[in-house]
Amino acid sequence: MGDTYRWKSENVSTSEVANEILRIDEIEQCIVVGAKIENHEGRCGYAILQTMTGNQEKLPDKLNILNKVADQVFNHLPHYARPCFIRFDTIKLNENHKISTKAFRNPTLPLGKTGKWEVFYLDNKTKSYKVLDESTYENIVEGRIRI
C-alpha cells in the first residue's frame, strides 16, 4: 500500500493523493507527506510539487497551477485526503532512480526551517490554495481557520 498518514480519523494513502495531483499536465513530480500541526490530532496532507519547468514559474503562474490542483483534489479526493499545504521544490532521484521522501518528511510550518519557504494552504471556503503567512498559520493552529 505504501506510505500513509492519519488525518481526521482516516488513513490517507500518500500515493493515492500524489497520483491525483500528477494528472495535472504542469506537474512533473509530486511527493505527499503528513505534517504535524499544533493543537490538531494526526497529520494533515502536505504536498511537494515540481513542475515541468523545474519550478521556474512566477507567483501568478504557480497560483494558476494550484487552482488546477484545487479543482482536481476537490473533485476526486475525499475532504480528509486533500493536501492542506503545498510547496514547490526540487524533487531529486536517489541513486536507485527513485524518489526519496526522507528529506521531505516532518516539514516545518509555516515557512520551513529556514523561514524562506513559500508554502500555500488550502482555503476550504474558496476552494483554492493561498499563500501561507505566519498570521494565517497562527489562525489555523488556534482553530479560527479550519483545514
Automatic annotation (TrEMBL):
Any single GO CC term annotated in Swiss-Prot or TrEMBL for this entry: lipid droplet
Ranges in a coiled coil: none
Keywords: ATP-binding, Ligase, Nucleotide-binding
Tagged with keyword Nucleotide-binding: yes
Gene3D superfamilies per UniProt: 3.30.300.30
GO molecular function term, any single one: long-chain fatty acid-CoA ligase activity
Highest taxon, organism lineage: Eukaryota
SUPFAM superfamilies reported for this sequence: Acetyl-CoA synthetase-like
The keyword Nucleotide-binding belongs to this UniProt entry's keyword annotation: yes
GO biological process terms on file: long-chain fatty acid import into cell
Record family assignment: Belongs to the ATP-dependent AMP-binding enzyme family.
Name used for this protein in its record: Unnamed protein product
Gene source species: Ambrosiozyma monospora
